[in-house]
Design goal:
Length: 104
Amino acid sequence: MLTLIPDQKGFMARIEIMSGTERRRRWSDEAKLRILAEADQPGVRINDVARRHDIHPGQIRLWRQSFSYVGRPAMFLPVEITEEASATQAPDTPPTPAVIEISL
């Protein structure tokens, strides 16, 4: 591994040179989940996370797919319908129709 001094703009400061027949890095599930958790934080860009970990942004998207619920059986979530707290008050604005679309 060759380590470089970072410049003032904060670009990549490390280059990993791989030699031999093995050219792919192996990531443990724990490391993948840690990177995915970092990428799922509010306001975080996938490109920034990928750059910090020296991986391609598409790799994060592939890991998301591999850890998703694709192929698992569907589950229903409980829904609770409650009464409105104050049904006697007139609304300030007329209610807009709500559209609920369910895709299977």
